[in-house]
């Protein structure tokens, strides 16, 4: 399972609307409003990295009122 965390900056006052839109996307497993440098934290999971890229590029980044994103790809750690 591929995992990514996306930090989003959005236009002032649009946070709740964007959070609701993100919650309705396939692959989105968690969405949180945040305080600090970013407005929203989103966790997405998919069977492949390619599928993650599709979700980020064609679904998340197409949501209106998102100003910028920062994507952190999760990697499998050794235990």
UniProtKB/TrEMBL annotation:
<dbReference type="Pfam" id="PF01037">
    <property type="entry name" value="AsnC_trans_reg"/>
</dbReference>
<dbReference type="InterPro" id="IPR011008">
    <property type="entry name" value="Dimeric_a/b-barrel"/>
</dbReference>
<protein>
    <submittedName>
        <fullName>Lrp/AsnC ligand binding domain-containing protein</fullName>
    </submittedName>
</protein>
<dbReference type="InterPro" id="IPR019887">
    <property type="entry name" value="Tscrpt_reg_AsnC/Lrp_C"/>
</dbReference>
<feature type="domain" description="Transcription regulator AsnC/Lrp ligand binding">
    <location>
        <begin position="7"/>
        <end position="73"/>
    </location>
</feature>
